[in-house]
Amino acid sequence: MSVIQAWVAPAAGQKLTKQEVDLGPLGSDEVEVQVEHCGLCHSDLSMLNNDWGIAQYPAVLGHEAIGRVVEVGTAAKGLKVGQRVGIGWTAGSCMHCRPCKSGDQHLCAQAQPTIAGHRGGFASRVRAHWAWAVPIPDALPAADAGPLLCGGITVFNPIMMYAKPMSRVGIVGIGGLGHMGVKFAAAYGCEVTAFTSSERKFDEAREFGAHRVVATRDPDAVRKLAGSLDLLIVTTNVALDWDAMLGTLAPNGRMHVVGAVLEPIPVTVFPLIMKQGCVSASPTGSPVAIEDMLEFAARHQVLPTTEHFPMSKINDAFGRLHEGKARYRIVLDADF
Question: Above 90 in pLDDT, residue 1?
């Protein structure tokens, strides 16, 4: 099917309207997926408002899509009609560059974002290269699995790369990303410290698995953690007291940024040298990393905390996200 129904953003900051969209012929290495659910990520809001300067309009947003394969291209591998899959931030990559051949397809210079120059998952159907349509384990509730495909892998990847089950891990920001980071780190066996600017989230952070909760606006509380954390994952997109954050690192500790902080992060190098510390960052993850994350989530029943809207209420959902009221991820249920 080339003509689909989709919720389209006509221009930056404008309300979405339901329209017919012609996807054209299915590529030989693509699959087409009938959307059942699609998470609403803060990145969708950033793209709607063109905060990053890479949006292309008219835009069909949505990059946490869950659904069933309805058509398979002639060169597509490993998927069949009727199979439930998920499509996250990336809908395709070149598959022949060095990162792609090394298993780091998410670092491909030609990677195709699902919502920039491509039609995303706020639609009746969405397409992706077969390798980026990741099977969803039967043990995961499909209705709530969507946010794992972007927010989930974004926080899971640094935990798998840089933490061990006995590591002391800090998660800065208990929002759409951070609450999943706490859940994953706790399930992995880490001692988890949650940092939040909102004291009303203290109890929830503990329910998510945090062993300790600290107010980022309390400098004394942050200073008491000096030299104690092996890994500090920053999920917020706002400026922090970076010297204080770096001060929490233990020897060989690492501050890893996954929140889209738009301002430069000042780093005082000498204290970092003395503790042999690191500052790093990462995007989402490769298809195999996403598969591993989904399997881990299914095994340990790590799921985002969600609230649901019918997709026909998509503008209301965007409004709730913009007002900072989402607890903690919004999922849109297709009702075309």
Answer: no
